[in-house]
Amino acid sequence: MSSRLIYVMDPMCSWCWGFAPVAEALVAQARAAGVPLHLVMGGLRAESAALEPAKRRYILEHWQAVEEATGQTFRLEGALPEGFVYDTTPACLAVTAARHLDPDRAWALVGLIQRAFYSEGRDVTRPSLLAELAEQTGLSRQAFADEFDSPERQAATAADFAWAQDLGIAGFPTLLAERNGQLALLTNGYQPLASLAPLLGRWLERGASA
């Protein structure tokens, strides 16, 4: 019987950062039952132009609302500086590159990218920084760079985006549980751990007794 937890997200999605402690706990809960994690990149933003001031203000207000709702800390001072292009594709590509090399380290990389962007105010659209963070997970910097630049990883990232769109997933975080090809929706959007842990627990129990 094949089972896995599928997390559809974007490393530069503010609600995914707010959801990070919940996701970490749920991934640990699933892994303790022998159910692995599979990351799917959702592709939040593919931008080529710098943020306009009004859009920047709107996003920072949204971040503040996410912080208030989830308790996750955002560094708002100096965030999204003038000229910043809010393109999440490089960060998504970094995760698919890491996923190809080592799925466990890909999950660690997600956390490092989120922390660098939201807590430290670093520009995680830069490939050099993404390679640095990948190396911190224990991946070879050169192997990561080769995958990051490869047409195969670009295609895999685009395939992730298409898979999420084909399922009608328009918001992140989205958490799915898959057993023998059958998908169960655990959440589309932020929910606290107290709501989701029992839900995942019941799904895991059904699998154990099947």
Q: Could you provide a short overview of the structure?
A:
With 210 residues, the protein is an alpha+beta fold. The protein has eight helices and four strands.
Q: What is the general shape? A: globular
- Structural class per helix/strand content? alpha+beta
CATH topology: Glutaredoxin
Rounded mean pLDDT is 96
Strand tally is: 4
Strands in their spatial order, largest beta sheet:
2-1-3-4
Terminal-residue CA separation: 9 Å
Organism: Pseudomonas syringae pv. maculicola
Domain DSBA-like thioredoxin: 7-197
GO molecular function: oxidoreductase activity
Protein name: DSBA-like thioredoxin domain-containing protein
Summary tags:
alpha+beta; 210 residues; 56% helix; DSBA-like thioredoxin domain-containing protein
Write a structural description.
The chain is of the alpha+beta class. The protein has a single domain, classed as 3-Layer(aba) Sandwich (Glutaredoxin). Helices cover 56% and strands 12% of the residues. The protein has a four-stranded mixed beta sheet, sandwiched between helices. β1, α1 (14-32) and β2 form a beta-alpha-beta unit. α3 packs antiparallel against α4 and α3 crosses α7 (151-166). The radius of gyration is 17 Å and the shape is globular. The model has no long low-confidence stretch (mean pLDDT 96). It holds the Pfam family DSBA. This is DSBA-like thioredoxin domain-containing protein. InterPro entries: DSBA-like_thioredoxin_dom, Thioredoxin-like_sf. Residues 7-197 form the DSBA-like thioredoxin domain. GO terms for molecular function: oxidoreductase activity.
